[in-house]
Amino acid sequence: MKTIGLTGGLGSGKSSVGKIISDLGYPVISADSLAHQVILPQGEAYQQVVEEFGAEILDEHKYIDRDRLGKLVFANKAFLKKLEGITHPAVLTRIKKIISDQELQGESLLFVEVPLLYESKLEAFFNEVWVVSATLADRLAWVARRQAGKRLTPE
Known about the structure:
By secondary structure, the chain is of the alpha/beta class. About 50% of the residues lie in helices and about 10% in strands.
């Protein structure tokens, strides 16, 4: 089976390209989605993340509050490295299993959207890597819209 890594910077349009590919009928795995799954209470990385960063990252239902965790790790590069050291192996294990399952099902092509593909040194894991790019102005506009959407509520 041919595997294609899909990557690009924040706001570059990776997810949009992934959606187009999916709409064309090709399977697309989102590493971000898997990263969210591994920190759910039943996820492989949940316990270790809570032990590392403390109960203050949990919401009232004992789920990891990704906004709280994000504020913590994006303010401290060492914390971010710790989080990545916990979650990346769990995500990679899930990706490998999905690839294996897809191959057993007879798929011939699989796309994996990985935001930090090169930073995580995963390029050799794929037959090809497609890099999505956008102008800085477009990327900044996307980030601004995303942040505004998180902070603004309908009146």
